[in-house]
Design goal:
Helices cover 51% and strands 0% of the residues. The chain contains 6 helices and no strands. Helix 3 (68-78) crosses helix 6. The radius of gyration is 16 Å and the shape is globular.
């Protein structure tokens, strides 16, 4: 088979992190808001970065539909977004829908990146209710 090529030189490295980007911002998500509205402030603040991340991923990381990642991406983006959301807990689906609306990104992209995030096990948040 054909070997995958890593394109790490396409973008400036963020590793090792500089002092300026070592601090992770602290954000509060108000769980008393409607699920669709919970991520509005954060989505608005990071809209450009979210769009850039998606473009970099799709243009340089996927490797086309013949790769396992490319095949997965193609299946998610070609699926019925509402049907996919119906498989998730209602509040979770509404949060994804709200973030899609505030960023202006297609719902399929939001679902794709949320699934990838969950599959990678990168969730580091702590949720508390008072």
């Amino acid at each position: 088979g054909r070997a995958e090529q890593c394109n790490i030189d396409l973008y400036p490295s963020t590793y090792p992190p500089t002092e300026a980007n070592m601090t992770v911002p602290y954000k509060v998500v108000n769980l008393d808001l409607l699920p669709m509205d919970r991520w509005t402030a954060i989505g608005t603040e990071y809209k450009a970065g979210i769009n850039k991340l998606i473009n970099v991923f799709l243009n340089h990381s996927v490797g086309g539909p013949s790769t396992p990642v490319g095949h997965f991406v193609e299946r998610v983006l070609n699926a019925d977004s509402e049907k996919l959301l119906s498989k998730l807990p209602k509040e979770y689906a509404e949060e994804i829908r709200g973030l899609s609306m505030v960023t202006g990104l297609d719902l399929g992209y939001m679902i794709l990146f949320q699934l990838a995030y969950e599959l990678e096990g990168l969730c580091t948040s702590i949720v508390a209710r008072d």
